[in-house]
């Protein structure tokens, strides 16, 4: 029996999702095809999306700030992207040879990210980060990778380490954060190859690099943490990270899978003036179709087969459907005017949430970068890294999530460490509805 009133309302509102969950979960584990979509008492199942909204199987309407976890910034069923996909469908969806379009899309990404001299397309963020790591290992002849505690870079063995460590015993001390596999089935040898540091803490990075001098191939990090809530880099942090990489002969891999072409036209690289050796993209670059890329300095990219010995394969790489959607999105939808609109709505949303915190007196702080934001309940200060963020009140966040769903708003991705976003097709009324729902929710869950 549900114990919380918001759970009872959710169950009353969503009988068709419940019915579908009971059916699908018999043959698909957890009733979802990626665990992040699961939540209790059961996940929502959606029928369709349009612009900044989704409709569930019961026909209930939601303002959507999850936006496919960053992939749908152009908006659901954006007509410009639909037209591009329709045109391509008529010419074939997968040709088994390189089709036109990849050149133009690579050029557009290189215009936004001037340090990228060459790039290769893949399908998912996991692939992009996996290949960037392989390339860094090949380029340096070294094995170890350093990642930031709490960061998610896709579910490959090497990077699915210390993504969301919880208990102190597996966190390790502040000075010596442990490498903790997030998944069963990760070989011990692989765990040892991924070292962990804290974001916004140059000292912790330097300690790891000193201890493992000449063994570290790459540091991988997001420019702004988007998987520990939103955590922005402190002033000069990336200048110091770059300095350390150069001093220790380590490649810097910037994971712009979620931030890329989202936080700004040139993502976090442009906002913070970061010049990595390799960068990874996915999500927004495909306009809602599966598309990813990794790229960077020519000297490294020329090591990829058939030019060099670093293997990168994939039947669906740069498939014409995804390229068509990506081109339409980046060249026609995500223009400077669109970024200005998104940022303006992002400002309004941020202000509305901050006002709601002040007016209702709920204990919470907000992390924010342009159109992305996240709420940390129970904290006094915005956190600087995952370890600080993980002290937030996750149970309260769960109540906030269900209350917001009950009010017709998907406030963010479905966990405290996810964030809200704004799309090219959100309208001021959507933002107003979200703010009103936030006020109502905060009043309910305050104590
Ligand atoms: C920063 C970051 N890197 C990599 C990934 C993995 O991307 P995908 O889900 O496309 O494999 C994600 C997914 O959310 C991400 O947020």
- The number of helical elements comes to 17
Give me the CATH superfamily of the largest domain: Type I PLP-dependent aspartate aminotransferase-like (Major domain)
The biggest sheet amounts to: 7 strands, mixed
Sequence of strands across the biggest β-sheet: 4-10-9-8-7-5-6
| Top CATH class of the largest domain | Alpha Beta
Report how far the terminal alpha carbons are from each other: 22 Å
Please name the CATH architecture of the largest domain.
3-Layer(aba) Sandwich
Query: Which word captures the global form?
Result: globular
Question: How would you describe this protein?
Answer:
It is a single chain. By secondary structure, this protein is α/β, with parallel strands linked by helices. It folds into 2 domains: 5-73 and 335-445, Alpha-Beta Complex (Aspartate Aminotransferase, domain 1), CATH 3.90.1150; 79-333, Aspartate Aminotransferase, domain 2 (3-Layer(aba) Sandwich). Helices cover 40% and strands 14% of the residues. It has helices at 5-13, 15-24, 67-70, 79-91, 102-112, 125-140, 168-171, 188-191, 202-211, 237-248, 267-272, 298-301, 320-333, 336-360, 386-389, 394-406, 428-445; strands at residues 46-50, 53-56, 61-64, 118-122, 144-148, 194-197, 216-221, 251-255, 278-281, 292-296, 364-369, 372-377, 409-410. A hairpin with a 2-residue loop joins strand 11 (364-369) and strand 12. The longest helix is centred in the last third of the chain and has 25 residues, at 336-360. Bound molecules: pyridoxal-5'-phosphate. Pyridoxal-5'-phosphate is lined by residues 69, 124-126, 129, 152-154, 222, 226-227, 255, 257-258, 282.
